[in-house]
Design a protein that fits this description.
This protein has 102 residues and is an alpha+beta fold. 22% of the residues lie in helices and 24% in strands. It contains four helices and seven strands. A three-stranded antiparallel beta sheet has the order 2-4-3. A two-stranded antiparallel ribbon has the order 1-7. Strand 5 and strand 6 form a beta hairpin. It is globular and about 40 Å long.
């Protein structure tokens, strides 16, 4: 007797970086934090660096010549159970990024 081969389904997503913060938080409410694991780092401003440091960030990269970064490779340290634990205080680039299923 042959059994059908089960292949895990992958959800294809398409990310967009908007010019302004996304106005609809619904995609974030239904997501498991895919974008929080998909990039090596997030560029942040100096005020964001200070705010994240005050929130206990341990994976910050300070730069004298370029952009400061929040390192999120292998998952952002603020991702908890598939949700952003600092959602109201997340960096601007996180506010502007939206993810859609293809």
């Amino acid at each position: 007797m042959k059994f059908p081969r089960l292949v895990p389904s992958k959800i294809k997503r398409h990310g967009l970086l908007l010019d302004r913060p996304a106005s609809d938080p619904l995609p974030c409410k239904t997501c498991d934090g895919a974008c929080c694991r998909a990039f090596p780092s997030v560029p942040i401003s100096w005020p964001e660096y200070e705010r994240l440091h005050a929130l206990g960030a341990t994976r910050l990269h300070f730069s004298l010549t370029g952009r400061h970064l929040l390192l999120i490779e292998n998952g952002c340290e603020f991702l908890a159970d598939g949700r952003c634990a600092i959602y109201p205080d997340r960096p601007d680039v996180c506010r502007r990024f939206i993810c859609e299923e293809c």
